């Protein structure tokens, strides 16, 4: 018999129950017991939902209050000294947020993207003398909780080598030297799970789809030779790409089963079957865990049939990766276009697809109707007139290299921009958004529901903009923004005004902690029917003599933070988006906006796992940015912003984007992320963030001066901007005022220091 299983499930709840519980706990409105009660109810609800889909094994350990990598670090006893020695929930949130319930500030752990997804993980910190000890019973407690409901658990563990790979070091040493100290804890975890009656444990090693140094490849054999003595069966899970040249040694590892991603890398099945032993379990990841389109079940059945012809062992079926990256249930979407809705599948529907696949193998007649419905939906999408726009196709044919070039090089542009803007050294600005108060959210929601008129809505937004402008003027900022009060999300807002997009009511996905997003669905050709932001930026500029920044989200970020159509190359969709944003950029310039920021927060996360494919992505991603930004005059200053990322290996491409100013998040890394720009001798201007907006802490003037001095050791004052790490949407005004006042004081201090 074929077994079906799942690699992980969304945590937030269908109505974001975990988000709201966490935020109430952080505000002191509920205690830890109530937080745990809500978490328990969510876990059990999700387990029952998965069990109703006929899964043979239910994942456990995939639930987290903040992040699964942080959970692993705490379980291993890896808590940086600055947080104290306790492993309780207060320490956990100190590591994640930089603040405990008593309000004491800490420097939070770094946060960066989980491979090429929009999920953020907390970076482990290890030292050369790092010691490990089993320090959390969370996994064992939740396993017992699941067993008490009568279900077969499959505990999920982040693998020791992936955890080490993701960790940062505080000094120069080889992280692999820690393996001998780390593995006994993993051995103890597996033994305890065996004592609980667990048969299978899923160990995730997604770094196996990366280009690995030989020492790390060799380490896999040594590590799993030691772990094979454990009394449980190990399912080694890989996802987000192909094993490639690793397939031969991975297939020989002494584990009982292997999971492979056949959505991202269907071509790898042949090489795995060439090397895989028939006495092992092979898990086929056939359902897309990263996107929301229905599975072509007939194509998946063909893959299963091909595998069964060559592989005589036991097959399991699963999603390609954890379903953490998709919304929970499509049935809540009652307002969607019925035709397009029939093309979609959320987490619950994806598990149903697994059940249908198994049924189609074991009882083909019983699955016939479900297969017919699937085939009709696939055909409907392929043949639909909704997805093609002849005007967009015509515009795409006119794209050429001349559309991607500014009139002159940066040194020439810089002189014209300085003459126009007349900014001081260390100019201060923000990244775009200001706090989204309950009043702002209510006005936006009331307008959407038709409870207030468009005139009243515009009046409310103009009042909000004027408030933001006056606050910025009083704080002494040099370049202002309108505050983005009208925007629900930096991607969703634009998608709502572009053709080719679809929006859900409850399609929430976790980004980090309690932060969740509702990604748009790009189902067809993209175009811009009318201006999207010009009204608000133009009004804001009319209120002040200081330069106003127009705020846009870039094409690559809209692409990477949406559920993208999979019936054409991603590059094609990126160029369509770029043409739409280019029209908006040009309209902002015509409206008198002197600075336009085109955020590419997700630029790096689109990199394929394998470096051999990087250049292809970088080429079209850079071209898409330049296509949308190069239609302006030299005197118009183009900014871009990038979120938590490593830049060293793509710095040449970032320079090729040719933005006049780039702002980056650097405060959590203590300016370490700036080193790539220093080593490269980045020619344009840079704003290294000095205010960590993902923490509730208020940075002092001294803190920011220290960070800017560190940046100034290698970057000329004429190149440096002063700004927060990211937008201020999630913060409170009382904290924002103090933080920005401290930031402007830091800039004044540095100006006076250089004369």
Summary, kept brief:
With 755 residues, the protein is α/β, with parallel strands linked by helices.
What order do the helices and strands come in, and which of them pair?
Layout lengths: L2 E2 L12 H10 L5 H20 L6 E3 L7 H8 L13 H9 L13 E3 L6 E3 L2 E2 L11 H11 L4 E6 L1 H7 L1 E2 L9 H17 L4 E5 L9 H14 L5 E5 L9 H5 L5 E5 L6 H8 L5 E7 L9 H14 L3 E6 L18 H4 L5 H16 L1 H20 L6 H8 L12 H12 L16 H11 L5 H22 L16 H4 L3 E4 L6 E4 L2 E3 L3 E7 L6 H9 L6 E5 L1 H6 L2 E2 L5 H21 L4 E5 L14 H16 L7 E6 L8 H6 L4 E4 L10 H6 L4 E4 L12 H12 L20 H22 L1
Parallel strand pairs: 1-12, 2-6, 5-7, 6-8, 8-9, 9-10, 10-11, 11-12, 16-18, 17-19, 19-20, 20-21, 21-22
Antiparallel strand pairs: 3-4, 13-16, 14-15
Helix pairs in contact: 1-2, 13-14, 17-18, 22-23, 26-27
Characteristics of this structure?
alpha/beta; repeat; eight-stranded parallel beta sheet; 42% helix; methionine biosynthesis; 755 residues; globular; amino-acid biosynthesis; zinc ion binding
Structure description:
This protein is of the alpha/beta class and 755 residues long. The chain has a domain at 3-64 and 114-383: Alpha-Beta Barrel (TIM Barrel), CATH 3.20.20.210. 42% of the residues lie in helices and 12% in strands. The protein contains 27 helices and 22 strands. Strand 21 (661-664), helix 25 and strand 22 form a beta-alpha-beta unit. Helix 1 runs antiparallel to helix 2, helix 22 runs parallel beside helix 23 and helix 26 (701-712) packs across helix 27 (733-754). The radius of gyration is 26 Å and the shape is globular.
């Amino acid at each position: 018999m074929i077994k079906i299983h799942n690699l992980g499930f969304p945590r937030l709840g269908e109505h974001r129950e975990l988000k709201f519980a966490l935020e109430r706990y952080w505000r002191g409105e509920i205690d830890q017991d109530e937080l745990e009660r809500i978490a328990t109810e969510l876990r059990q609800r999700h387990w029952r939902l998965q069990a109703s889909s006929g899964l043979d094994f239910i994942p456990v350990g995939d639930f987290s209050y903040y992040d699964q990598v942080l959970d692993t670090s705490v379980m291993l006893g890896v808590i940086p000294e600055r947080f104290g020695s306790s492993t309780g929930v207060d320490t956990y949130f100190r590591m994640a947020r930089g603040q405990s319930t008593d309000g004491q500030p800490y420097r939070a752990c770094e946060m960066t993207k989980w491979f090429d997804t929009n999920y953020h993980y907390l970076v482990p910190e290890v030292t050369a003398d790092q010691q490990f000890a089993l320090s959390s019973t969370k996994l064992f407690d939740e396993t017992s909780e699941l067993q008490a409901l009568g279900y077969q658990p499959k505990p999920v563990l982040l693998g020791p080598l992936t955890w080490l790979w993701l960790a940062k070091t505080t000094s120069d040493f080889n992280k692999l030297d820690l393996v001998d100290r780390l593995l006994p804890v993993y051995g103890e975890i597996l033994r305890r799970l065996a004592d609980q009656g667990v048969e299978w444990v899923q160990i995730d090693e997604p770094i196996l789809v990366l280009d690995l140094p030989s020492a790390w490849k060799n380490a896999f054999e040594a590590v799993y030779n030691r772990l094979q003595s454990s009394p449980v069966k190990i399912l080694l899970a890989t996802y987000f790409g192909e094993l490639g040249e690793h397939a031969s040694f991975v297939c020989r590892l002494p584990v009982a089963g292997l999971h492979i991603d056949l959505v991202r890398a269907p071509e790898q099945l042949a090489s795995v079957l060439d090397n895989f032993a028939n006495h092992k379990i092979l898990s086929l990841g056939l359902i897309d865990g990263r996107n929301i389109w229905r599975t072509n079940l007939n194509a998946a059945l063909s893959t299963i049939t091909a595998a069964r012809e060559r592989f005589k062992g036991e097959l399991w079926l699963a999603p390609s990766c954890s379903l953490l990256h998709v919304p929970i249930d499509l049935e809540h979407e009652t307002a969607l276009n019925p035709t397009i809705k029939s093309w979609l599948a959320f987490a619950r529907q994806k598990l149903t697809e697994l059940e249908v696949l198994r049924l189609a193998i074991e009882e083909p007649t019983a699955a016939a109707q479900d297969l017919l419905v699937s085939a009709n939906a696939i055909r409907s999408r392929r043949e639909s007139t909704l997805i093609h726009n002849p005007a967009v196709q015509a515009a795409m044919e006119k794209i050429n290299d001349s559309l991607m070039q500014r009139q002159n090089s940066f040194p020439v542009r810089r002189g014209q921009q300085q003459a126009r803007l007349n900014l001081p050294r260390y100019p201060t600005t923000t990244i775009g958004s200001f706090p989204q108060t309950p009043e702002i959210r209510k006005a936006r929601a009331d307008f959407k529901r038709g409870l207030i008129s468009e005139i009243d809505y515009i009046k409310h937004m103009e009042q909000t903009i004027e408030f933001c402008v006056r606050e910025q003027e009083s704080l002494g900022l040099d370049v202002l923004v309108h505050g983005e009060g009208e925007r629900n999300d930096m991607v969703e807002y634009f998608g709502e005004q572009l053709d080719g997009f679809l929006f859900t009511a409850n399609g929430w996905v976790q980004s980090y902690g309690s932060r969740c997003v509702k990604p748009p669905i790009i189902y067809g050709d993209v175009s811009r029917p009318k201006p999207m932001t010009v009204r608000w930026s133009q009004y804001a500029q009319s209120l002040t003599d200081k330069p106003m920044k127009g705020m846009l989200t870039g094409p690559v970020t809209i692409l990477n933070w949406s559920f993208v159509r999979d019936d054409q190359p991603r590059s094609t969709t990126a160029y369509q988006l770029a043409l739409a944003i280019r029209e908006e950029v040009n309209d902002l310039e015509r409206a008198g906006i002197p600075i336009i920021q085109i955020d590419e927060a997700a630029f790096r996360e689109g990199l394929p796992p394998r470096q051999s494919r990087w250049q292809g992505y970088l080429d079209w991603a850079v071209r898409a940015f330049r296509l949308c930004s190069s239609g302006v005059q030299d005197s118009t200053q183009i900014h871009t912003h990038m979120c938590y990322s490593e830049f060293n290996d793509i710095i040449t491409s970032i320079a090729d984007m040719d933005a006049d100013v780039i702002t980056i998040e650097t405060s959590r890394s203590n300016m370490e992320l700036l080193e790539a720009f220093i080593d490269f001798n980045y020619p344009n201007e840079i704003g290294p963030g000095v205010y960590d907006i993902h923490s509730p802490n208020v940075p002092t003037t001294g803190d920011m001066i220290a960070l800017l001095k560190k940046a100034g050791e290698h970057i000329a004052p004429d190149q440096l901007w002063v700004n927060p790490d990211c937008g201020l949407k999630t913060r409170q005004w009382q904290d924002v005022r103090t933080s920005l006042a401290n930031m402007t004081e830091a800039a004044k201090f540095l100006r006076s220091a250089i004369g």
